[in-house]
Design a protein that fits this description.
Order of helices and strands: HHEHHEEHHHEEHHHHHHEEHE
Mean pLDDT: 81
Largest sheet: 3 strands, antiparallel
Low-confidence stretches: 194-200
Shape: elongated
Oligomer: single chain
């Protein structure tokens, strides 16, 4: 029974398993069939959509291809038209070039023919010219070179004559206008500038209250006078002149110190070496103060401001310096005034002209031990004390040692010459005066054709007599210019020198 129950149980399990398998298989196959149908349906729909999209894209592609084809054909058509236009232009240019080429060929042929004709004519002319030269040489009896020399000499003489005539005309016109204007300007400047004549000398006179004072000045065994001379560097001349002592020396500053010291000693009455030394020192201080005052007064009078104090002191020292007897400070003031007046007439820088005129002789204020010309020393002083380079150039150029770099510098030259050359401005030694006159006549006599030369008007003019058979009227103008240039080159002189060339022809007959 137990065995049967087990078998029955196993059979039941197997039947259950079989029934479950068959049931599961049936339902699974049914689902699979349904899924396949759905998948087939989806695939079919997808295939239809794909076909639809494919047709649309093909249509779009065909439309785009058609559009591009139209644009391409249009562009090709336009380019074909442009190429045709270019071809027409090229053809036209080729035709034009062909025409020009043919014209040039014709001209070339014509030129060749003309050149051949010209060559033939040139050969004929050359042959004719040679025959004419031979005939002329035979008739004149001169060779070609000799005839050339005669013609060149004649042309040269004519050119010299015409050149001299032109120089004469231009000089007369320029001199007329320049002299008129210059005379007006210089006359106005001189009229507005008054200055003293020469009055300085190398001695000073000190008046004494009585002749007994001479003995006190000399002192025991001459010790007082030796002390005074040693301290001042000035010679005291005590002679028979009543109630006067003469101070002699070439240095005006030292002479002024000696004069002031001696006057103080005379007033004080106590004259001995110690007192003399004290008074000389006081006199030096007074002279130094006077120098500064004179310099300041000069700058105030001219209206020049901003000068270095040392330059002001140097200007004051010029009060005690002389040049050919002319006081240098007065001369500098006069040059400044003249330069300022002339500058205003010519519309130039008046302040610059006055400043340069006042400082132009500043180099003369230096001690005699310093070497070099006063123009160079003055220019160096101006640079040292911060004056402009233009002022330094005007100082250095006022005697022509360097080239002036401004019109005002030229004005300083002119004003300096006017101040030095006016009557009574300067005095010269007889020896130098005679030498200058002799040198003037010597320069004039050195020129060919000069018969005699005479320096007149204190060397301000030279009159030259020339030989009329060697120098004609136009050559006389050239001789005057050459003599003027040689005088300017070889001679130093104040002001200007007038050169007059005189040519005189006389015809003398006697009636019997």
């Amino acid at each position: 029974m137990q065995y049967l129950a087990v078998v029955t149980g196993i059979i039941g399990i197997l039947l259950g398993l079989g029934a479950g398998y068959f049931i599961r298989k049936y339902f699974a196959e049914a689902k699979t069939a349904s899924a396949e149908e759905a998948a087939e349906k989806i695939l079919k729909e997808a295939e239809e959509k794909i076909q639809t999209l494919k047709k649309e894209k093909v249509l779009e592609a065909k439309e785009e291809v058609h559009r591009l084809r139209n644009e391409f054909e249009k562009e090709i058509k336009e380019r074909r038209l442009e190429v045709q236009r270019l071809e027409r232009r090229i053809l036209q240019k080729e035709e034009s070039l062909d025409k020009k080429t043919s014209q040039l060929e014709k001209r070339d042929d014509e030129l060749k023919k003309r050149e051949e004709e010209n060559t033939l004519i040139r050969d004929k002319l050359t042959e004719t010219y040679k025959q004419q030269l031979l005939e002329l040489e035979r008739i004149s009896g001169l060779s070609t070179e000799e005839a050339k020399e005669i013609i060149l000499k004649r042309v040269k003489d004519e050119m010299q004559h015409e050149t001299a005539q032109m120089i004469k005309d231009v000089e007369q016109q320029a001199k007329g206008e320049a002299e008129k204007r210059a005379r007006e300007i210089i006359t106005q400047a001189i009229q507005r500038c008054a200055a003293d004549h020469v009055s300085e000398s190398t001695v000073s006179v000190v008046n004494l209250p009585n002749d007994e004072m001479k003995g006190r000045i000399i002192g025991r065994e001459g010790r007082n006078i030796r002390t005074l001379e040693t301290l001042t560097g000035i010679d005291l001349i005590i002679d028979d002149t009543p109630e006067a002592v003469i101070l002699s020396g070439f240095d005006p500053i030292r002479r002024e110190v000696a004069r002031i010291a001696l006057e103080k000693l005379i007033v004080d009455g106590r004259i001995h070496p110690a007192r003399i030394e004290e008074m000389v020192e006081k006199a030096r201080h007074e002279v130094e103060a006077q120098i500064r005052e004179e310099g300041e007064q000069a700058t105030f009078e001219i209206g020049v401001h901003g000068l270095h104090p040392e330059l002001v002191r140097m200007l004051g020292r010029l009060k005690f310096r002389t040049s050919y007897g002319q006081n240098v400070l007065k001369h500098s003031l006069e040059v400044a005034h003249l330069a300022g007046i002339i500058a205003s007439e010519l519309s130039l820088d008046v302040k610059f002209a006055k400043r340069a005129g006042l400082l132009h002789d500043i180099g003369k204020a230096l001690d005699h031990e310093i070497e070099g010309p006063h123009v160079i020393n003055g220019a160096e002083l101006a640079k040292k004390y911060r004056e402009s380079l233009e002022i330094a150039n005007a100082i250095a150029a006022h005697h022509g040692d360097v080239e002036p770099q401004s019109l005002e510098a030229v004005l300083i030259q002119a004003a300096d010459a006017i101040s030095a050359a006016r009557p009574g401005a300067r005095r010269e030694t007889l020896e130098s005066y005679i030498k200058r006159l002799e040198k003037l006549e010597e320069i004039a006599d050195s020129f060919e054709g000069v018969e005699k030369a005479y320096a007149i008007q204190a060397g301000r003019e030279i009159r030259i007599m020339v030989k009329p058979d060697k120098i004609d009227d136009l050559t006389a103008i050239k001789v005057a210019r050459d003599i003027t240039k040689k005088i300017e080159k070889e001679l130093e002189y104040p002001g200007q020198i007038k050169v007059t060339v005189i040519r005189e022809t006389r015809a003398v007959e006697y009636a019997r």
